Amino acid sequence: MTVQLKSFQNQIPVATDLASAPNPKKARYVPLHHRRILCIFPKYSRSFGTFHHAYPLMGNVRAFMPPQGILIVAAYLPQEWEVRFIDENLRPAKKSDYQWADVVIVSGMHIQKPQINQINQLAHQEGKITVLGGPSVSGCPEYYPDFDILHLGELGDASDRMIEYLDQHHQRPPQQIRFETKERLPLSEFPTPAYHLVNLNHYFLANVQFSSGCPYRCEFCDIPELYGRNPRMKTPEQVLAELDAMLESGNIGAVYFVDDNFVGDRRATMQLLPHLIDWQKRNGYPIQFACEATLNLAQSPKLLEMMREAYFCTVFCGIETPETEALHSISKVQNLSMPILEAVKVLNSYGMEVVSGIIIGLDTDTPETADRILEFIRLSQIPMLTINLLHALPRTPLWRRLEAEGRLVFDDSRESNVEFLMPYQQVVEMWRRCITEAYQPEFLYQRFAYNMEHTYPNRIAVPNSPARTSWANIRKGLTYLTNILLRVGVFGNYRQTFWQMAKPALKSGNIESLIHVGLVGHHLIQFAQDCAAHTESASFYSQKIRR
């Protein structure tokens, strides 16, 4: 899609943030030359978190979430320039796209490194200037020696210098140029992402970011070093403007707050929530919200009550491990402020289904760790857990410690870059056992059944508003339900277990829960079956190359 843009702002590592108008506190750079900018987001390798097995049940859906970072690039560029955006999770950029462009801008994460470098190669074959920004290059610029220009860090002074350079130089530079942000633009001055360049109907869910940064220092996490420990916020008005823009772009049913920690600054979150509640009421509760938060959110009843009224239905918590010693070892002590199982039940009591991160391969793991994780899953009744092998990311305390200990391993036949204290193959098999048993259809549906009885009923009763009962929503729901009943209920290899859940839901008219369990459960079950067959990776950041 090619457009003339009306905003001026940039790209930022990983999921990002924005505002709705050019920065009013400084003069906007007015370019002297016309430029065509091709913004490309690389394709993800398949993983647990891409939810790819659910897409065939969802009609037009072909990717997980729109990439906010690169959409900020499109919104930050001068309005006089033409911008084309391609998400290669939907379709690859064509030769004609590269030929059209003057400059190719790319953003991505470490897991996308091979695809990022391939885009650079294709662009150079057409003689185009290439620019790379985002979390991967900001953390490890040495990974990308062949790009013409590197944008390191977040939106700020480097972005302005980069734009001016691209305006004044029309040929590839003789050697790589790096623009590094020294002064970050406040999030309150960010623009709204260029949602007019995307069709949100093609995505599993939409996303928004309210804050950046996290006050905690978990050993394995690179967020504090990339984005800081003092959360920076957008204004509530910015968030509402983004939600309005999303509604104009597609038929969204859920919006995920991709903040590093939605409650990193609780005072700011408390100020945001009344605005979200008012927006939901004014618009007829058109969407569900989900977020990432630390488990100690369970100790803030006033915050939870407002989240419930704003219709937050899912919260992802990095539980990582149920073992106290292990939590201390990875500096995840915020999970110890109250018993984990009690915290999960508190969140459930406000209608929030908990999603949990689980890490296998910690130094404290023993041969009994798998048993303890599976018992925790049974007791917690958490349906979905991202069970990953430990992987050391650059610019983390874990990376530095393992590097000093000589325990970093770079071998593309391995699932992890960590030399575990337990035998490597034993750790991998422990992961395989956990993920395959956790997502046995009977065990998974038991946990969903618990939440259908004890969690979902605690949500507010939302109105049958025009926004919720529109023909587009009805058509989408019928598509999902028909595909689930046919592909899972008739042709699925666990159809008998499915009908034990589906028949009572259909009889009671609980169609929304049936669709949720059908979609999410199908991906989890199919992914676990792929893991059992050794055709899926044991980590989102797996090094293993599958040909």
Structure at a glance:
Its cofactor is [4Fe-4S] cluster. This is Fe-S oxidoreductase. By secondary structure, the protein is of the alpha/beta class.
Keywords:
single chain, 547 residues, alpha/beta, 2 domains, 18 helices, 38% helix
Backbone shape: globular
Number of strands: 15
The CATH topology assignment of the largest domain is: TIM Barrel
Percentage of β-strand residues: 5-15%
Alpha plus pi helix count? 18
Strand count, sense and closure of the main sheet?
Answer: 7 strands, mixed
CATH class of the largest domain: Alpha Beta
Distance between the termini: 33 Å
Q: Compute the gyration radius: what is it? A: 23 Å
CATH superfamily of the largest domain: Aldolase class I
Uncertain stretches of 5 or more adjacent residues? 1-23
User: Which strands sit side by side, in order, in the main sheet?
Assistant: 1-3-2-4-5-6-7
Structural class comes to alpha/beta
Q: What do you see in this structure?
A:
The chain has 547 residues and is α/β, with parallel strands linked by helices. The chain has 2 domains: 35-180, Rossmann fold (3-Layer(aba) Sandwich), CATH 3.40.50.280; 205-458, TIM Barrel. The chain contains 18 helices and 15 strands. The chain has helices at residues 68-76, 95-100, 113-125, 135-139, 157-168, 223-227, 236-249, 266-283, 301-309, 324-329, 340-349, 369-380, 397-404, 424-438, 441-454, 471-488, 495-508, 511-532; strands at 2-4, 36-41, 82-87, 103-107, 129-133, 149-152, 177-180, 206-208, 211-212, 232-233, 254-257, 288-292, 312-320, 353-360, 384-389. Strands 1-3-2-4-5-6-7 form a 7-stranded mixed beta sheet, with helices on both faces. Strands 8-11-12-13-14-15 form a 6-stranded parallel beta sheet. Strand 4, helix 3 (113-125) and strand 5 (129-133) form a beta-alpha-beta unit. Helix 8 runs parallel beside helix 9 and helix 12 packs parallel to helix 14 (424-438). The longest helix has 22 residues, at 511-532. The chain is globular, with a radius of gyration of 23 Å. It comes from Nostoc piscinale CENA21. Its cofactor is [4Fe-4S] cluster.
